[in-house]
Amino acid sequence: MKAPKFPQQVISLAIIFAILLGGLIAARILLVPKSFGKYGHYRADAADEVASLDIKYAGYKACLECHDDIYVIKEKSNHRGLSCEVCHGAAAKHIEAPDEFVPDAPRGRGYCPLCHGYNPSRPTGFPQIITLQHNPGKPCMTCHNPHNPLLPHSPEECSACHREIASQKRVSHHSSLPCEKCHTVPARHTTDPRSALPKKPTTREFCGGCHDKNAASPKEIPRIELASHGGRYLCWECHYPHHPEAK
Amino acid sequence: MKENKSEKPNRREFLLSCSKAIPLTGALFFPLSAARLLLAQESGDYDPTVHNYGMGIDIHKCIGCGRCAAACKTENNVPLEPHYFRTWVERYVLPSEGEALVDSPNGGIDGFPEMNEDIDTLRSFFVPKLCNHCTNAPCVQVCPVGATFITRDGVVLVDEKYCVGCRYCIQACPYGARFLHPEKKVADKCTFCYHRLAKGLLPACVEVCPTQARVFGEVGQQSSPLRRFLRFNDVIVLKSSLNTLPKVYYAGADGEVR
Fold first, then answer.
1. Which of B61, B112, B152 minimises the CB distance to A121?
2. What percent of the residues of chain B are helix, what percent strand, and what percent coil, each to the nearest 5?
C-alpha cells in the first residue's frame, strides 16, 4: 500500500511543531523541580528546606535538664513562666558545646528596665520603676535576685522612696528633724505603701508647738504670734515644711 | 428466567460472595495502614497533615518589651537594621480627639520613647504584629511563580529558591508583614519558626515572651492551648472585612486596632 502523500509545507510545519512540543516537554522535565505540584502549586521540598534550618533558641525545657536547681527556685517566684533565654540569650550552641559557648547574662542597669522601666502604655499592675529615681547607679542585681525577684527588703529609711523630699529637707533648716516629728507612719506603710498612708499635721497649733512665741522650745527657733500671724491660713499654705524659707 | 438465573448470581449469592471479600480486602489494606502509622511513630517523623497552626495574642498582657522582635531576629537571621521585621511591637496612643497614633521604633526592640505630652491621651497599649498566616492568603494568590504557598500544616512560607523578588506579595499583604530581604533579594516573612515546629519547639517569640502574651497551638484540636485561648477570650482577627481568614487571634483588642 502506498503511504498517503502529504504536501511539503504540512510536513515541514509538522516537524516544527514536533520540535516545539519536544522542546516544551524537555524544558518541563528539566526545569520544573520534581516536587513541584506534589501538594499544590509550589515546590514541596521548599517546606522541608525551611524545616531543616538550625535553631538558635533551645527552649526552657533543654535548660532545665541540667539547671533544674535554678528552675525549681524560679518556678515559685514572680519570674515563673519566664524562659531562661529571655535574659541569657539564645543558647542552642550551649546545649551542643556546654564549655565552649557559655550564655551571658545582663548585669548592668540597662536590661531589666526593658520590661520594668515605667511606661504608661504598659498594663496597670505590672511592676515598674522610674529608672532615674530608683537607686540611681546601682545594678539591679545588687538588691534583686533575677531568679527569685521579690522586693529586696522593706525600706528602713523614708528616703528610700521619698528621695526628693529627703534631699530637700537635708539642706533646709528642718534638716535635724526626723520625718516622724510631723508624720505618724503606720508600720504597714513600709510594706504596702498605698494601703496605709502616713498622717500629716492638720492644724496651725502643730507648728505653733515650736514656732509660737510662748512655745517651750530652743531659743534659736524663729517665733511668730500664732494668733495674729497669717490670719486664717494654714502654715503650709505659705511655708513649705520640707524646705522652710524663713530664717 | 431460568437462563438468567444460571448466568447471573442471585442477590443472596452475590451478598454472600461480597461478605467473603470484605475480610480479604481488610487483610490486604490493614497491614499497610498500620505499618505506616507504626513507622511514623517509631521514626518520630513529623506529620504535617495532622497540624493546623495558629497564634493567640493577649493585648492586656503585652508589656511592650520587644523581646519577641529581638528573639525573632536572632532565631531567623533577620537583618538587624530597622524596617526588616518578621514580628514587631506597635504602640497605640489614642488621643481624646482624632485618629489613633501608632509607632514602632525599631520594632520595639530598644523600648519606646516617652509619649508626646502635648497630646491629651485617652489610652495607650501595645500590639504585637506578625504574619497572620491567612487561610485565604492574598500573598499566595498573587505570587506569579508559586514561590509563596500554604503548607499542609497551615503555615504560609516563601520558597527562597523560587522567589523572583517581584514584590507583588509585599504589596498584596494587607498586614504589612512582608519585606524584601536586602541580601537575598527575595520576599521574607514570619514562618511561625517552621524549623522549630518540626523539632517540637515553640516559635522563638512565644518561647521568650515574658508575660505569655503570645499563645501558640493548633486551631483545630480541643486540647491545644490555642483552643483554650479562643474559648476563654473574645477574640478578633485583623481586617476581617478582607476575608483573608487570618489565624492570628487578638484578645483584648481595642476597636482602634487595625
1. B112
2. 35, 20, 50
- Cell matching residue B195: 524549623
Cβ atoms of B159 and A43 closer than 8 Å: yes
How far is it, in rounded angstroms, from Cα A237 to Cα A125? 34
Across the interface, do A55 and B125 touch by the CB < 8 Å criterion?
A: no
Instruction: Per-residue pLDDT tens, chain B, 258 aa: give them.
Output: 444 445 666 777 766 776 666 655 555 555 444 444 444 444 457 888 899 999 999 999 999 999 999 999 999 999 998 889 999 999 999 999 999 999 999 999 999 998 888 889 999 999 999 999 999 999 999 999 999 999 999 999 999 999 999 999 999 999 999 999 999 999 999 999 999 999 999 999 999 999 999 999 999 999 999 999 999 999 999 999 999 999 999 999 999 998
Residues of B in contact with A83 (CB under 8 A): 207-208, 210
The structure's pTM equals 0.72
Separation in Å, CA of B152 to nearest CA in chain A = 8
User: Whole-angstrom Cα distance, residue B163 to residue A223?
Assistant: 87
Q: Domain B50-251: state its class.
A: alpha beta
> Minimal Cα–Cα distance from A110 to chain B, Å?
10
Q: Is A219 on the interface with B (CB under 8 A)?
A: no
Task: Indicate the burial class of A93 (C-beta count within 10 angstroms; 0-12, 13-18, 19 or more).
Answer: middle
**CB-CB under 8 Å, A57 with B115:** no
Amino acid at A202: T
Q: Which three cell numbers stand for residue A85?
A: 533565654
Predicted ipTM > 0.95:
no
Bridge partners of B57? B214, B250
Interface test with A, best of B80, B89, B94, B149 (most A CBs within 10 A): B149
Contact status, residue B112 vs residue B62, Cβ threshold 8 Å: no
The cell for B79 is 537583618
Residue A69's domain comprises 60-117+125-133
**Do the chains contact at A55 and B196, CB–CB below 8 Å?**
yes
Burial label for A103, CB within 10 Å (0-12, 13-18, 19+), is middle
Domain tally, chain A: 2
Burial, B140: exposed, middle or buried (Cβ in 10 Å; 0-12, 13-18, 19+)? Answer: buried
- The enclosing domain of A87 has a CATH number of 1.10.287
